[in-house]
Design a protein that fits this description.
The protein is mostly helical and 109 residues long. It has 3 helices and no strands.
Length: 109
């Protein structure tokens, strides 16, 4: 539609429609206005496209953040399990050492 309007507003288009060729200056101004309008429309379209991409990037980032949080939570749970397991092993070793000491004391007595 914009291209069709441009064709009509060009001097050749106006002449074809019976327009005044002396109005070429106003036609040139109209063409400049249309060029500016085209640039503005392209800029708006580009901004909309960028906003859509930013929206998609935001969604992807949220998914990544959630996955990282799950991984961190799992790693923390695994670390806690490993620490708890190590604590149990230390307690078992201490208990075994205490029993051995008691057994040696009983044998010595």
């Amino acid at each position: 539609a914009v291209n069709k309007l441009r064709e009509v507003l060009r001097p050749e288009g106006r002449a074809a429609l019976g327009g005044d060729p002396a109005g070429a200056a106003s036609v040139s101004e109209s063409e400049a206005d249309l060029d500016l309008w085209d640039e503005e429309l392209e800029a708006v379209a580009h901004l909309r496209e960028m906003a859509a991409w930013e929206n998609e990037v935001g969604k992807v980032k949220a998914v990544i953040d959630a996955a990282e949080a799950r991984v961190a939570g799992t790693a923390t749970a695994a670390q806690l399990s490993a620490a708890q397991q190590q604590e149990v092993e230390v307690e078992a070793a201490e208990a075994a050492a205490a029993e051995a000491t008691e057994a040696q004391a009983a044998e010595a007595a």
